[in-house]
Every structure is written in structure tokens, then in C-alpha cells.
Amino acid sequence: MDRRRISVLVLLVLVVLAAGAMRIRVLFRDAAGIDAKLVCSGVFVSGRSAADVRAHSLPFEPPGARFDVDRQAGAVHVRVGRGIVRTARYLGDQGCVAFPPGVDRVSFEPRRIPTELRPAARLSWPLGDLAEVGPPQDVNADELERAVALAFADPGAQTTAFLIVHRGRIIAERYAPPYDRGTRFEGWSMGKSITAALAGRLAELGHLDLDAPTGLAEWSGPADPRARITPRQLLRMSSGLRFSGPTDSLVTLLLRGMPDHQAIYMGIDDVFAYALAAPSEHAPGTVGRYRNSDPLALGAVVRRTLERLGEDYWSWPQRELFDPIGARGFVLETDTRGNFILTGFDYGTARDWARLGLLFLQDGVFEGRRLLPAGFAGFVATPAPAWPEPVYGGSFWLNRTGRVPGIPASAYWMGGHGEQRVTLVPTHDLVVVRLGHTAGNEPAGTALAEALGAVVRAVPDDRESG
């Protein structure tokens, strides 16, 4: 090989190495952004120590990252190497926000979110916390105790909370020290089911047609196929938007950068605009796949609908959804524009997650009041037709393929990273909440499946009694 070719080859290698180094720097910058947010939320929303969050809840910590928790200012700064500084700040009832690089303030006025509920200690479950926890006579107490033990048996699963509601009654509840029923736990993608509930509430009030085009200005062009997308298709993750999906491939990250699906967690200024800018890849309703673009787009529909009605976007969920079900502990976090990032940045107590599960188990009725349209719960539990397998409904995962053995195929659940789960088993009138640290993701799945099987064996099958 002559010297000229060698020189060209060496130059190409240097270019590739330089590009790789730049990409790694960007990845470290992005990782520092989400790490700052998660430590901020863990400390100021959940009441955990920064060390606990770093050990159990960060997806990736860049080598040599330095964390500074400023409790007086309510801020967390993460520094990596030279020049990378990412900041998250506590906003009170809006939780924590991750600032984009170079940004140090939000462009909306954070709100205090009031509740009209009386103190939980003065009200009976489910609107309050006064509850006699334990199994009735028709529940196998030994099998129930075994189920709870299974949820916590493997330390690697890192389960923090396990709660079982049968026929509306709490029959078992346990927390890993130092957590308790007042701890707000991260729900991750279980927040997608909150978005579904908000859309369902608007539909029940007559403000949202699930089968009409969204009317979003960004998708209004006469030749734009996105103009035909409906809220129902967004609930089913069948919009057809081009949005790169989740991946664990380091090679892909180095070559293409952070996928859109995860990029929205890294401190993007306007997550709704990011999702709505995605072009059309497939005709609406023809391809189903798991992408954060769809629940974010639906979130934009919710916000614009409320603003058109003159409602306060930030307090409306508490007033119209959470207060009626007795939930006082939900924290819905935002970007710097105030958009709820309910694809992952949502916190709630185990009992509040259980209350939301009860709302769906009871076909949208809570304490005699209809909050969601009749049949809406059935819709979210029905396979989305565009998906190649019957594993997803309307912002809920389904057990139609037997993904969780030992429980009925009709079971469905809110699901989030780290096996955050609210599992609904209609045949047994069950809501089972399992929460845990995300570092226990893989063993948690096995532990949860075994625990759920034991729960179902412990309680009566209503199909047999009915």
C-alpha cells in the first residue's frame, strides 16, 4: 500500500475516532441531564438520599460524574469532565425539571396544586387511608402471605412496595425499609395510563372525541397524513409517526445518537413540540409499536383542549381525576415549558397507584361517580388491532399471550421501567401494585410473576362464584 493510501486510511481512522469521541461526549452530557433530574426527584419528591438514588435508580452514570445537591436552592448539579454541567431544579408541586444545556429557568409559572379532600387520616379507604388491612375469610391467608414474601424474596429485584386490593379492600400491604405508604415512588411509563385517564375524563365531559382527528395545528396540512390521526390511535400507539425506538445497542448509540424514545428525558425544552415534529412513516392505524411520540402527542391534545376551555392545565388533573379517587400524592413533572412528561416523569404513593387501578377495574366509576366513559376500561384492555401481537391495548399492556404465566389472559396492567406495575385481574376483582428500584429490572420480572401467580391462587375466582 503506497503512502498516499496509508495517509488517507489514517485520516479516516482519526475522523471516526474523533466522531466517536464527540458522540460519547454528547451521550455523557445527556446522561448527566437525566441523572440530575432523577436525583432531584428522588431527594425532593420521594425523600430519598442522593446516594440511594445513585445506587439504585440511575440508568447510567458517566464515569467520574460529580453530584452536588443544593438543598437550600432545591437544585442538583451534575458535572462530568471538563465543561459538562447539567442542572435540575425542584419546582414544588410540579416536582423537578431537567434544564437543557445553557438554560437555568422555566418559561411558565409553577403552580401550587390544591386538593379539596379532607386529610387522608380522617377518611376511610379508598378516599382516605383509614383501612383494616388483611384478608377476609374467603381468601387463603397462607397463600397470600407467600405471595407477599415472593415479591420481596430476591434482594436483586429491589422491590420497595407491594399492595393487593381485592374487591375494593386492601388485603395485603408491605414496604421495604425505609419506605412507607407515604413515599412517592417513580412510576415511569405507568404515567402513560394517567394520560389515558385524562383523555378519558375529557371524553366523559364531552370535550374530546376519541375518534375525530386531533386538530393539532402542526398536523393540519391538506396533504399531511398526520391530520387523520385520532386520540384513539394515539392511545393505541398506532399513529404511524417516525420516532426512533428504545434500544440497548451501544453501537447504535454511537452511530446515531440517543433514540427519540429516550431523548425526551434528557432535558428537552419542549417535549410536545419534539413529538409533534415527527413526520409520518406509516398510515395512521396501520402499524402498532411502542413509541413515546404517541402519548406525548396525546398529552399535547389534552393541554390544548384544557387551554381552549379556559382551564388551568396544571391543577385540572388533581381536581377532575385525582381528588375524586382520593389520590393526594401524585406529582406530574414537566419540561421547562410546563408540559407534563407522563411517559416517565410521574411519582405517586402505592395507594394512589392502587386507586387509579381501581378506577379502571370499576369501569371508570369511583364511589358511585362516573369519571370515565362507560366501556373506556374495556377499550384500554382490548388488543390494539394494528399491533402484530395482542400485547398492547390503550396505554395498558395485556396478558393475552401469557406473558405473565399463572394469571388469567384477561389481566392487563400499567407498566413502567424497572417493572413498576399496577396489574388488574377482572376475573378475581384484583388490583396489585408492585413498585421497585429500576436497578432491579430483570430479576423483578421473575419475582413479580411468581408473586402474582400466588395472589391469584389466594383469592376466589369470581367466574366460579358467579
What is the CATH class of the largest domain?
Answer: Alpha Beta
Q: Rg to the nearest angstrom?
A: 23 Å
The CATH superfamily name of the largest domain is DD-peptidase/beta-lactamase superfamily
**Strand/helix succession:** HHEEEEHEEEHHHHHHHEEHEEHEEEEHH
How are the strands ordered across the major sheet?
6-5-15-14-13-12
* CATH-assigned fold name of the largest domain: Beta-lactamase
Number of helices: 14
Number of distinct beta strands: 15
Average of the residue pLDDT scores? 92
Q: What percentage of the residues does DSSP assign to strands (E)?
A: 5-15%
Largest sheet: 6 strands, antiparallel
Structural class: alpha+beta
Provide a descriptive summary of the structure in words.
- The protein has 466 residues and is α+β, with helices and mostly antiparallel strands.
- It has 14 helices and 15 strands.
- It has 2 domains: 88 residues, no CATH class; 325 residues, Beta-lactamase (3-Layer(aba) Sandwich), CATH 3.40.710.
- The strands form 4 sheets. Strands 6-5-15-14-13-12 form a 6-stranded antiparallel beta sheet, sandwiched between helices.
- The longest helix has 42 residues.
- The radius of gyration is 23 Å and the shape is globular.
- About 3% of the residues have low confidence.
List keywords for this structure.
single chain, about 475 residues, alpha+beta, Beta-lactamase, 2 domains, six-stranded antiparallel sheet, four-stranded antiparallel sheet, 15 strands, globular
